[in-house]
Amino acid sequence: MRIAYLLPDPGIPVGGIKGASVHVGEITRAFARAGHDVLLVAMRAAGPAPDGVELVVLDPGPLGRGPGSDAGRIAAVDRFLADAEPAIRAFGPGLLVERLSLFAGGGTDLARRLGVPRLVEINAPVTAERAGYQGVADAAAGELLERRALEGTHAVAVSPPLAGWARSRGVAQVTVVPNGVDVERFAPDPDRAADVRRGLGLEGAEVVGFAGSLKPWHGVDVLLRAAALPADRRPRLRPLVVGDGPVHARREDVAAATLPGRVRFAGAVPSTAMPAHLAAFDVATAPYVMPASGVGFYF
Is residue 209 within 8 Å of residue 278, measured between CB atoms? Predict the structure, then answer.
């Protein structure tokens, strides 16, 4: 089958190191490995296309952040969908797969014009997420476009709560496929793990780790405060934070206040280095925080 994967999100660059970028790369690479011809149409690229995947980048140029940028982003997404149509039509897909993205409501119309079935991949309630963490000037417009993107379509959601949310937005059918892992890529590798530990000064340590893009909902501050509780009884305990993001500096402040000199921040690492860093953990954690708004329920 010929599959066109549509990524109308300027915050998810193809080939980037953030989790969403890796996710898109893995999904499209898996399609190609299964023998499909794959076209990935995206707004941004920070690296090469996944192996076996044809890439078209339609970069909208600089876009603002925060509520004041909403009108510009809506216009950019509309232009992207219009510009994507000729490339997708020339590719001749038998299926259009679209990652649900903020302010992207035109995928249903695009699939109708192309005469192909469409599948929407849902990883978050995108408007609620934006409103909860960055602010949104017109939440009603975001939700309207969200419903337009989902109503009557088939969807894949990463969790049962998110599937229920999708049903409330009018999807015709939703299948739950939890996030997975490439077990071959992430097979334990003691030698590479030892190299990471040596490089970070963690030889002989009890390493409690987190890996992610350091967003507010990841709860790294909770992890650091929790690790401080047994610190007197476990002198070899060392938290290791792998990744970078908007709350990095604040988490370093928490580390200095709760576990001075004992927390290691590895910073952002390429996805190819992530298996060795995860293997360096004795305990891996996911200390995600449930906001009062419920934005984080899809985890």
Answer: yes
Residue found by looking up tokens 């077990």 in the block: 183
Report phi then psi at 242, rounded to 5.
-110, 120
Architecture of domain 2-176: 3-Layer(aba) Sandwich (3.40)
Sign of CA dihedral 89, 113, 37, 103: positive
Q: What gap in Å lies between CA 134 and CA 132, rounded to an integer? A: 6
Q: What single letter denotes the amino acid at residue 202?
A: L
Helix ranges, the chain (H) = 19-33, 70-91, 107-114, 126-133, 139-150, 160-168, 190-199, 220-228, 248-258, 274-279
Domain boundaries, the chain: 2-176, 190-284
Token pair for 117: 């079935």
51: burial class by Cβ within 10 Å (0-12, 13-18, 19+)? Answer: exposed
CA atoms 286, 50, 125, 298: torsion sign: negative
Contact between 277 and 196 (Cβ < 8 Å): yes
Q: How many percent of the chain have pLDDT more than 90?
A: 78
Six token digits for residue 214: 């350091």
What distance, in Å, lies between the first and last C-alpha atoms of the chain?
31
User: Is pLDDT above 50 for 176?
Assistant: yes
Specify the 3-state DSSP secondary structure of 229: coil
> Smallest Cα–Cα separation from 227: which of 267, 265, 254?
254
Specify the CATH architecture of the domain 190-284: 3-Layer(aba) Sandwich (3.40)
pTM for the structure as a whole: 0.86
For residue 51, pLDDT over 50 is answered with yes
Report DSSP state, residue 287: -
Can you read off the two tokens belonging to residue 11? 């915050």
Does residue 295 register a pLDDT over 50?
Answer: no
SS3 247: coil
